[in-house]
Design goal:
Layout (H helix, E strand, L loop, with lengths): L3 E5 L1 E5 L2 E5 L11 E5 L8 E4 L7 E7 L1 E7 L4 E7 L2 E5 L4 E5 L6 E6 L12 H6 L3 E2 L2 E2 L1
Antiparallel strand pairs: 1-9, 2-3, 4-11, 5-10, 6-9, 6-11, 7-8, 7-10, 12-13
Length: 138
């Protein structure tokens, strides 16, 4: 089973507009890094990597939408991210973001600061790593 969750962003709406809130208490980790991607196009793909041990990440579109492909080497899922959805991605899930709307602004909240050693960008290397799914080795 793919280890990801979809949460709902807290939103307060009134005559002044919409206010969206994310706090550490809303997430299964403490936020250590925030980054975002904008000015993308429909044909651009981002991500296309896996984090073998850390970080845990929360992704959301502050504006627009995109699709995210998730793959643990055994199962795949596709999530359309928009509106008040927050996607929680745990380690060992290969993820690729694509199909960005013209106005997409994709934010990522991460449980660790940036460290290139936390990335596997070679799909063949990822595919060669033994994986445990529901307690079974694949």
């Amino acid at each position: 089973m793919l280890d990801y969750k979809l949460l709902k962003l807290k939103q307060i709406k009134d005559q002044r507009g919409d206010l969206s809130v994310i706090q550490n208490s809303d997430l299964p980790f403490k936020i250590e890094r925030i980054f975002w991607a904008g000015a993308t196009s429909l044909l651009i793909k981002r991500g296309d990597h896996v984090h073998p041990e850390e970080p845990i990440q929360a992704l959301f579109c502050a504006r627009g939408s995109c699709d995210i492909e998730l793959d643990n080497g055994y199962e795949k899922a596709e999530v359309s991210l928009m509106g008040d959805n927050i996607l929680i991605v745990k380690p060992m899930i290969w993820h690729k973001m694509y199909n960005y709307s013209d106005d997409c602004l994709l934010f990522t909240l991460a449980s660790t600061e940036y460290n290139e050693a936390d990335y596997i960008r070679d799909r063949k290397k990822f595919d060669s790593i033994p994986k445990y799914v529901q307690g079974k080795l694949f």
